[in-house]
Structure formats: C-alpha cells, structure tokens
Amino acid sequence: MSQQHKGFVPFTLSEHDQLTHLLARLLSTNETPIIIPGEAILGIEMIAAGISAPGRTILNVVTGPYGDIFGKWLERGGAKVIEIKVSFDEVATVEAVAAAIEQYKPVALSFVQAESVTGGTNPTAEILKVARSANLITIIDSVSAIGAEPVLFDEWGVDFVTIGAQKALAGPNGASAVGISPRGWEFISSNEHAPRNSMLSLLDLRRPANATDSFRVPANIPVLEARALIEALQLIEQEGLEAVHRRHRLASSAVIAGLEALGLEPWQRSEAGYAPLNTTVRIAKGTSLDIDKSIGIVAPGDGEMLHQLLRINHYGTNASLESIEQAITTLAELVGKDPSAALATVRSIWEAANER
Ligand SMILES: *Cc1c(COP(=O)(O)O)cnc(C)c1O
C-alpha cells in the first residue's frame, strides 16, 4: 500500500481576499483589516508595541484585566501612560474620560469595549466621540464585543480595533484580526520604535497600496484556523449580524431576569454596563454560590475576580434558550432553591422576543 502524502493546501490569495472582505463587513469599514496570525491577544500586543514611544502620552482607560495588561505593554514601549481605572464592577463614564483628556492632553486613547472577565460594556460610541473631537488616535479592544454588540469602525472613527472569533462569533481562536485606519497606519509608520521584521510588527503585515499583483499571502497565517474563520464568518452572515446581536442581548436579559428571580444580584452595578456577551453574578458573603470549576457555561471568576463573581458565558452557540436554562438550573442548585419560577421567567422572555 502506498502512503498518502496529503500535506497542506496553502492559503490562497483568493481565500485571503475573501477573509478580509468578510472581516471588513463585520467591522462596517471600507478599510482592509489585517489578519493576525494568532489569537486576539497577539493583535493587542502588536498594537501596543506599534504605537508606544517615548514622548507620546497615551490615556488608557482600565475597566478590567485586559485594559490593565494593555497599559503595561504601552509602558514597555516607553510611552507616558496615564490611566483612569474604575472599580471592576463599574464601567467608564464619558465625563471622567473627557476630564482626563482635558487635564493630560494625550495623543491617543485606549480602552476595552467589553470585558468578558467583568461582564461590563463601556459607553463606547460616546467615549469615541469625545476622543475624536479632541483629535486623538483611538484604540479599542473589541474581542468580547464583536458579534454581541455593534462595532462600527468607520462611523465611530476608530483608528485601531482588535477582534477575535472565539467569543460571540462561535469561531476559532487561532487567527484573529485588527482594523487600522489610514491615520492609524501613519501613527505606527512614523514611530521609529515600532517593531519591524518581528512577529509583533503590524507594518510587516500591511498590504501595500496598488500592489495587487505582487502581494503574497503572509506565510505565517495559520491556514486551518484562517479557513475555519472564513466558515464561522459565513455562518454569521447567514444568520445576519443584527440577529446575532439580538440573540446575545436576549440571552443577557433572560439571564439577568432569571438570576434576579433566584434572589441573586448581577456583579455589574449599572444596567447600562451589562455586557450582551456574558453576565457576571455577584457572590454575596455567606452564599454557597462559589465554585472552583466550570459547570457548563457557569464559570468561576478569572484571576482577581475568583470568589467575587461567577461568569455566565452565554455567547456564541450558547446564546440559546437551552444553555441559559441549564445555567439557571445550575445557579438554583448552588443556592439550594427550586428553579421552576426562574425558568418560567426565562422562557417567557425568550418566547415573547421570538414571537415578535
Ligand atoms: C477574550 C478577550 C481577549 C482575547 O483573549 P484570548 O487570549 O485571545 O482568548 C482580549 N480582550 C478581551 C476584552 C477579551 O475578552
């Protein structure tokens, strides 16, 4: 019997173009997003490395651990980093951001749109409006937002955005994307400290303008992950991005109602801050809610959030009635209550929304 050598079929230019078009539609942009050869956190580190430089003052708004680490990467690059940090059960306010811009006169503003670790979502469009009127370069981490809520790259005038498919988009984690505006490219290419000839270099992944014929697909794109990403984004287009957002919002409101019916409290203090991606539940002292291993989509808090909150990860394929019913049943068991009334509440919210 002869051995079959199947090997890999390289990622073609037409697949590359197909993927960048899908990503551009996802971000509502006319720019060409960059395919990142790794999970989303790589794109975030690449942006920090590319924009940071001595002499640049950057305002970093921290509402959770991902914002924290971005600030550290900015500092490593030599920028002067000003941080406004909120308690992780709250989100940023436009007023605080505006006051900090006024006080510190930064050249750029960065923040995380939604933090899966805290279950909070920031008033992103409003913050970006303030930043744009001060003519700042803007950087948003939308990994936990994409698919769960709108990310409008061109309309909001964003300069850098990072997205990944492993949360609301129900896709792979091994290839991700960043969107970069022309101003954003200029901000990196004018930075002599930006990495070049490096896995952290965005400049190396830039497709030269008017070089259609000579463009070669970057050799470091993980082929199988990139193909899986194409498939995931095609499924999103089939369902419709607005319908995917709606499903996540509905999952969020059904879970909130269900946990309140069990006498539990959301971790996030203001309703406007509830992320459609996932819901965090406060572990009140003296309750038996604490767990150290995930039970279905009910997960313990990450890092410093452990023992403080539980995460209900109702995203991607788990933004579904079945997953939510299971999660509410699990919470009821943990606190020793009958789940029936809470489940009835969840079902009636789900059904009412789907009958419309
Ligand atoms: C999940 C997430 C990321 C990316 O994390 P990975 O390590 O790539 O899974 C980045 N930012 C935020 C806000 C996230 O929620």
Give a quick rundown of the structure.
By secondary structure, the protein is of the alpha/beta class.
Describe this structure in words.
The chain is an alpha/beta fold and 356 residues long. It is built from 11 helices and 12 strands. The strands form 3 sheets. A 7-stranded mixed beta sheet has the order 1-9-8-7-4-2-3, sandwiched between helices. Helix 9 (241-261) packs parallel to helix 10 (321-335) and helix 10 packs antiparallel against helix 11 (340-355). The radius of gyration is 21 Å and the shape is globular. The chain starts with 12 loop residues before the first helix and ends with a helix. The model has no long low-confidence stretch (mean pLDDT 96). Bound molecules: pyridoxal-5'-phosphate. Pyridoxal-5'-phosphate is lined by residues 39-41, 66, 112, 115-116, 141, 143-144, 164, 166-167, 173.
Shape: globular
Low-confidence residue ranges: none
Biggest sheet overview? 7 strands, mixed
Look at the helices and sheets and give the structural class: alpha/beta
Share of helical residues? 25-40%
Give me the Rg, rounded.
21 Å
Order of SSEs, N→C?
A: HEHEHEHEEEHEHEEHHHEEEHH
Instruction: Indicate the mean pLDDT.
Output: 96
End-to-end span in angstroms? 60 Å
| Small molecules held by this entry | pyridoxal-5'-phosphate
